[in-house]
Write a structure and sequence with these properties.
By secondary structure, the protein is an all-alpha fold. It has four helices and no strands.
């Protein structure tokens, strides 16, 4: 049991590292689309998410969970991220529309809610 916990802890730490890298890619995409090109915040959020989704798949496969990326897993991976996009989109919407939060900071706060959920779902899919 202790060995499983240590492995899970190492995976979670690697997942956080990948998450930081992936969040950077997402946020740069979001800021470019929303801040520079003036695209609606929700469209920019979803587009940035899709761009970072591909990066996330490969980094999580190869680095976090150390599994071979396959076409089947790649096709399943977006399904695992459905929870992430749903929860993060809802958070972004609520933060901006209900709490009048700045549209540039709302996506960053939403990740604190989605990280633990995404780790669990991602591990289940990639480790099959």
């Amino acid at each position: 049991m202790e060995k499983v916990m240590k492995q899970t802890n190492r995976e979670f730490i690697r997942f956080i590292v990948v998450g930081v890298i992936n969040t950077f890619h997402y946020y740069v995409s979001y800021l470019l689309l929303h801040g520079i090109f003036g695209i609606n915040y929700m469209f920019a959020h979803i587009a940035g998410f899709l761009i970072s989704l591909v990066i996330s798949f490969y980094l999580n496969s190869l680095f976090t969970f150390k599994v071979k990326p396959t076409l089947v897993k790649f096709l399943q991976f977006p399904v695992t991220q459905l929870l992430n996009i749903t929860v993060s989109s809802l958070c972004v919407y609520i933060f901006i529309e209900q709490f009048q939060m700045e549209s540039r900071t709302a996506p960053i706060l939403s990740i604190f809610i989605t990280i633990p959920l995404t780790f669990i779902v991602t591990g289940k899919i990639l480790k099959k």
